[in-house]
Amino acid sequence: MNRIKYFFFVFLRIWKYKLLSDCQRVTGKPNLYLPLLLKGKGKINFGKNVQIGVIASPNYYSHYTFLEARNSESEIIFGDNVSINNAFSAVAFSKITIQNNVLIGVNCSIIDNDGHNLDVDKRVRDDIKSVAVTISENVFLGDNVTILKGVTIGKNSVIGNSSIVTKNIPENVIAAGNPAKVIRDL
Q: Edge-to-edge strands of the sheet including 43-46?
């Protein structure tokens, strides 16, 4: 009986966030284990076998995944076999690309923009700087990682827990820290 209650609870949460979603340009269908909120006027594309949420992981009962392709020209693209843990967010003003076979830990976020202008007189305007972000194939992002605008993470690289990535990371390395720096080659 408890198992039925559990699945009903999860189903209701997922259904609620589907109703709250307003992005109309979505292709592909991820495997949902956690609620997913899709916002914005842009495109969101899911490849094959994209998993959203992990049952036996922190924030499962209390969080959701947030994806926003803000403007009509904004894009968020997921490749095939991407696994996204709980409490993930991505906000694209231009483009965020997550290639094939990427693993994303708990509470990670990717933003391709500044959010607000640093100039106090321009802070509430819409002229926000945005530069595309690319997470290459076979990358593993640990828990609590933040990827900022203009970053490309090279193939097969690992980003350590709680890192803030502000600059490009080459292929086949482990990087960590604030700001993230290469620790060693793989």
A: 25-27, 43-46, 75-78, 95-98, 133-135, 152-153
Coil/strand/helix, residue 12: helix
Q: What confidence tens digit (pLDDT) does each residue in 53-102 have?
A: 998 899 988 899 999 999 999 999 999 999 999 999 999 999 999 999 99
Name the residue among 179, 159, 154 with its Cα closest to residue 167: 179
The answer to whether the peptide bond before residue 170 is cis (omega within 30 degrees of 0) is no
Q: Three-state SS for 14?
A: helix
Catalytically active residues are 116
How far apart, in whole angstroms, are the C-alpha atoms of residue 3 and residue 21? 27
Amino acid at site 32? L
Q: What predicted TM-score, i.e. pTM, was given to this entire model?
A: 0.94
Beta-carbon contacts of residue 36 (< 8 Å; ≥ 6 apart): 14, 17, 18, 21, 30, 52, 64, 65, 67
In a 3-state reduction of DSSP, which class is residue 43? strand
Characterise 114 by phi-psi region: left (phi > 0), alpha (psi -120 to 50), beta (else): alpha
The alpha carbon of 3 is separated from its chain's Cα centroid by a whole number of angstroms, namely 29
For residue 167 the two structure tokens come to: 């600059």
Name all contacts of 9-14 with Cβ < 8 Å and 24+ positions apart: 13/64
Neighbours of 36 (CB within 10 A): 22
